Amino acid sequence: MTTTPSATPGDLDRLAQERLEAARSGVTARKAAASAGRKPMVAVLVIGVGLLAAPFIFQMLAFDNRAPKGGVMINEFRPYMTDARITKFDGFMDLINRAEQSYRADLRPVVAAAQKNPAQQGAFASVEDWTTKWEGDRGIHKDMTGILADVRRNLDNYKAVDNLPPFKLFPFFFIMPGLIIIFLARSALRRMRRGAGTGGAGKALVVMGVGLIAAPFIFQMMGGENRAFQGNGMIQDFKPIMTEQRVTTVQNYFPVIALGEGQIRNQLLPLAKDQSPSANYPVVSEFSQQWPAISSEFAQFLGVMSDNLDNFAAVKALPPFALFPFFFILPGLLVAGLALAARQRGARQQTRSA
Amino acid sequence: MKHRRILGSVLASVVLVAGACGGDDGDKTQAGSAGEQLVGLFKIDGGQCSTAGLTSGSSFRMINPGGKLGEGPFISNGDSPCGDKTYSPMFPGGDGGMRTGAYQPEVSPPFDAGGHGATELIAKGTPFFAVRFAVATNQKDPQTGGNAPLPTLEVKDGKLSGNLSAFAASWNNQHFNQGAPKPDGSLPGLTSAPAGTYDEATKKFTLEWSSQIVGGPFNNFTGVWHFEGTFEPKA
Asked: What is the ipTM, given to two decimal places?
């Protein structure tokens, strides 16, 4: 502070007053700048809280624990979701179907015409029951091959989902960015309250926003394998299959086929041999030879379906897979945009005030 | 101080009583809260069939999901020699029957190359849908992984009751807990605790329990087990 020797006490008072006004207007300008930038930053904080809360709201974590359940389902389906395995099941179905046709064409005429004891009569009725239930548009063959076709159609979809990061990590893809955004937004708000700009925290928030936008593309949820959309397709296709009613229906096919096989092997083939010792029924015999392996494989497959009904229901209860990329992209756009807005509005206000 | 003395006396009493109850492994029977424990071998008689159903001996039946105890509908087993194929007769295995107070665990590996259950201590393998199932009592249940208590049966007024949580069947490379109650103590669905009769004089017994399958390919199917034969107390 310098004053001329001729300055009067009145001049000094005026000068002091002017300087005080200048300081006041500077503070007001900084406060205005901070206030202008704070609203977007508060919105960023809210988005951070939203991301943190999302896994709990969607019950990905806690309550129904849907993400870990989805992970269990994906793991347990893995051995069956291969072309080789489904081809093997298709082969089994083809063999049973050929055996059924061979029974009707070759074996049935022989045993139907033969004199039968009560056990043989009972066996004949059991096998007739199987063939009746096997054929037709609502028959076991049509239904089972339909299920296998649905599974085959979704092999690529499953593979795409299996290539995503493990399901159990999914909640943390929301929680971690949410926590970081909350921390950065609070830092930025504290700075702004002091009248400073958003600083490094503001820049970091822009980067976080860009990271959120990029995440679905990095994980190929969108773009590349389009895993979220393929997963959505699989969930939609499996909805009619993965129900308790449907699984129970398939369970009940088993005793029908198994009883038919047992009755042919134990009763009707010996009866047919009695009628014509030289007759052979190679397809029917092959069916019987293969049946323990067929039933074992199908039982395991059915077991996995049955054991994962709850897990599938949990995954089904999540928001549609196709929306998941947008759960990253939209918050990412908002966080980046609002953080930029907070920086720019603050800077603009400061310039105006200056 | 007085409280400590009382607590000490109570603890000492508990230790003494516990020692008295469990001190003699050679006891044929042990006094239980509800009845008399029968420790030994429940030798089973092989199932005998007619052109209809089972006429005597031991057997297995399976109820379809949604069925009822005693009414079924029961699954027909194409490999049953009975006229009524819902009965699968069972025959004594290497030990002659089921032990109480001891496990008769499944062998390792539990299945042969054809998926047949390989354990034959309690009963011989029983043909069921082209594959033989085996039964065993396991400390660690192969299906649930839960720990099961030792099989116990007790008699009171000629009625049998007990805990057969450890009982399990293995068939076609699959394990099924067939205990009652289940290893976790529950009685899901049609699962019913062991019940039967015991004649002290002749040592003849009949024993029946049912166990609903929980999980796996036959989820909600229920196994109904009927054992009858002669009790041989532990020497």
From this structure: 0.80
Query: Tens digits of per-residue pLDDT, B133-190?
Result: 999 999 999 999 999 999 999 999 999 999 999 999 999 999 999 999 999 999 999 9
Tell if the CB–CB gap between B217 and A300 is shorter than 8 Å: yes
Nearest CA in chain A to B172: A296
Domain co-membership, A250 together with A301? yes
Q: Do the domain assignments include residue A238?
A: no
Q: According to DSSP H, which parts of chain B are helical?
A: 2-22
Asked if the structure places residue A228 within a domain, the reply is: no
Chain A residue whose CA is closest to B78: A262
Strand pairing report for B97-99 and B152-156: unpaired
Smallest Cβ–Cβ distance between B174 and the set A118, A260, A299 belongs to: A299
Burial class (CB in 10 A: 0-12, 13-18, 19+), B201: exposed
pTM summary value: 0.82
Contact A251 B115 (CB under 8 A): no
Q: How many CB pairs lie under 8 A apart between chains A and B?
A: 89
Asked if residues A189 and A338 have their Cβ atoms less than 8 Å apart, the reply is no
Question: What is the tens place of the pLDDT at every residue in A54-111?
Answer: 999 999 998 899 999 999 999 999 999 999 999 999 999 999 999 999 999 999 999 9
Q: Would the CB atoms of B215 and A306 count as touching at under 8 Å? A: yes
